[in-house]
Amino acid sequence: MGVKVYGIPMSTATRNVLMVLMEKEVDFELVPVDMKNLGHKSPEHLAMNPFGKVPVYQDDDITLFESRAINRYVASKYEGQGTPLLGSTPKEQALVQQWMEVEGQSYYPPCGALVSQLFFNKIFTGQGPDPAIVEVNEAKFNAVLDIYEARLSESKYLAGDFFSLADIGHLAHTEYFMAHTGKADLINSRKHVAAWWKDISTRPTWKKIKRHV
């Protein structure tokens, strides 16, 4: 069977997986999950992901959940085609993994919290943001972005002078952050972070993702 991704267009994790597939030039089918009617909690979906989340990836005899694991698998399985995303030496590969960990442990938590408070809360609950949560996470995100500014003053991309999974992992939630929180200046005010963001967010594949979903 061909590659299938079960998810929803609005999901940041789903978008990042689709980005990797497009960079690797892998054909895929996006299978919509009706989350409004709890399709992600159906027995069929729970059989694929017992945590009831999206995306879920199917390819040949493997079913995977958790977007970062999916992305590593796709980049490795299809290493010989499309854009190299893992690094070509042990040093480069270690730096890719390091910055993927940084994204998951340090960048995403405050960025995701700000997006949730300032954008998704209004959509899903009709409630405004909690000022205390916004204040705490804005301070955390500022501190993280200072570290990114220092790193990106030394290299074009996070793992070096090559585009990789480490960069892709930032795309979807930063896109929401820049467009919907009113706090884009946190990125734009930092010369090197702003240049990096402009570079990765204008890649033809990312533009195609936004049209696709």
From TrEMBL:
Drop me one GO molecular function for this one. Answer: glutathione binding
| Catalyzed reactions per annotation | RX + glutathione = an S-substituted glutathione + a halide anion + H(+)
Q: Kindly indicate whether the keyword Repeat belongs to this entry.
A: no
List, for all copies, the residue spans of the domain called GST C-terminal. Answer: 89-213
**UniProt entry keywords in alphabetical sequence:** Transferase
One GO BP on record is: glutathione metabolic process
Report whether Transferase shows up as a keyword of the record: yes
Q: Which PROSITE patterns match?
A: GST_CTER, GST_NTER
Give the Enzyme Commission number: 2.5.1.18
Pfam short name (any one)? GST_C
Record-given protein name: glutathione transferase
Top-rank taxon, per record: Eukaryota
EC class, as a word, reads transferase
Family listed:
Belongs to the GST superfamily. Phi family.
Matching InterPro entries: Glutathione-S-Trfase_C-like (IPR010987), Glutathione-S-Trfase_C_sf (IPR036282), Glutathione_S-Trfase (IPR040079), Glutathione_S-Trfase_N (IPR004045), GST_C (IPR004046), GST_Phi_C (IPR034347), Thioredoxin-like_sf (IPR036249)
Its lineage opens with: Eukaryota, Viridiplantae, Streptophyta, Embryophyta, Marchantiophyta
Q: Where is the GST N-terminal domain?
A: 1-82
GO CC terms: cytoplasm
